[in-house]
Structures are given as C-alpha cells and as structure tokens.
Amino acid sequence: QVQLVESGGGLVQPGGSLRLSCAASGSIRDISAMGWFRQVPGKQRDLVAAISRGGSTYYVDFVKGAFTISRDDANTVQLQMTGLKPEDTAVYYCAATIPGWDLGYKYWGQGTQVTVSS
C-alpha cells in the first residue's frame, strides 16, 4: 500500500511559478514510476510528466521547457512549473505505479488545485 499527498497548489498570476510536491509513504520500495496528472472540468485526466525509478523522465509536449519533474528521494517527487498560463489551471494529481501493473497508475493522491489568473 502506498499513500500519496500533494501540496503546493494555489493561485498564481500568469507567467508565475509554482512547485508541487508529492510525499509518498507506505511500500515505497515497490514504486517503479511516479507521475503528475491534471484534469479540468469536462475533460479527461491527462499525464503531464513522469519519472521512473531509473530516472527517465517524460513530459507532454505542451509543457516541455516549462515544467520539470524531479525526485528528491524515494519519498518525494516534485513538479516545478514556470511560465504558467491560464490554460494550466487544473487539479493536479500525483500518482504512482509498480512493476507488472498493467492497468495504469495504481496509487493516487487527492489532488491539489492550481489556478492561474490575474
């Protein structure tokens, strides 16, 4: 069992920055990858960035150069967001998966709201 808790969301002006953090607890050694998703009302939940146990990273094309995912240790993954735009407004979710899991990400946090507005 893995528990994920997001923090760092809030209100920011266009062009500003935010750092989201995801603290993991429980069976941390079982995690093979962690990622950040976002969802806006009326749209599907989409993967924004991910990082594997080996350190490989993935970014959706729209955020390359603006968002950076990093892993401080086995317990914490962060998403540094810069140059934020109103269209980045969404609920951001931290997620984690384990080897051999074929149904996508297995564990999910509660989400944190990011609002980009002047």
Secondary structure layout:
Elements: E1 2-7, E2 10-12, E3 18-26, E4 33-39, E5 46-52, E6 57-59, E7 67-73, E8 76-81, E9 90-97, E10 107-108, E11 112-116
Parallel strand pairs: 2-11
Antiparallel strand pairs: 1-3, 3-8, 4-5, 4-9, 5-6, 7-8, 9-10, 9-11
Judged by helices, strands and strand pairing, the structural class is mainly beta
Radius of gyration: 14 Å
Task: Say how many strands there are.
Answer: 11
- The rounded distance between the terminal residues' Cα atoms is 40 Å
Helix content: under 10%
Tell me the fraction of residues in β-strands, as a range: over 45%
The total count of helices amounts to 0
Mean pLDDT score: 94
Q: Rough shape? A: globular
* Uncertain regions spanning at least 5 consecutive residues: none
- What is the chain-wise order of helices and strands? EEEEEEEEEEE
Q: What composes the largest sheet?
A: 7 strands, mixed
